Amino acid sequence: MSKKFPLILIVSALAGAAHADTQRDNYDTPAGSLEETTGFFSGIALGAATGGPPGAIVGAAIGAFIGNGWKTKGQFVDIQADLYESRRELTALQEEFGLIQREHLLAKHELEQLKVKDSSVMPAFLSTQSINACCDNTVISIHFRTGSSRIESHYEEQLESLVNIANQMPSASVEITGYADRIGNTEKNLALSRRRNESVRQFFRNNGIESSTITTIAYGEARPLQINQNFETDFFDRRVMVKLRDNSKQLLTQTPDND
Question: Which of 99, 206, 231, 247 has the most neighbouring CB atoms within 10 Å?
Fold first, then answer.
């Protein structure tokens, strides 16, 4: 009985100190240190049961250490969650940057085309013969996203302008030539270039151009613009060239897909 009494005093003293620290922590930090306190009391109980007063002291120290470990683990989990969120935001920013970069490359390419080609204004009172002479061999290039055959909305205005000119040319024909980049399978890229052609052909048909005046040719990845393949060249290879021709003067020099 005399041995148990000092043990009770030691446990009570340690518990009181731990309780006081916990109360102080509750005022200092709203979250507190529940893990440390739980480990502390668990260590006291286990140490006292196995080793008496010395065991209680040692057990309290070990318990507090274990409780602190649980607290550190919780902080690590929070850091992991923050890291995941940061990576997700970075991925979204990278995708947005890639889209902006592609739009920039497209604008740069179209600007270079405008520099090498003289622009001309066609008055409304010009005769049909003048329209044919002016607009024969007019070419526009539209580009596509990777693996896509959908016409981007900012190209529709250009295509509509070409449709309006074609409607004023009684002998106009539309030549559509599709390409693909060198990413992936050759046969699939050829099929993709044909689907892109069909998207453009359908656009012209929906705007009143007769199917008999439209021809399509697909090359897939067979005719890249540059020998070296990289991000920029792949972007420019994903294209469809649309040429407006005066059918009364020139014949198609390539074999169309729809013959």
Answer: 247
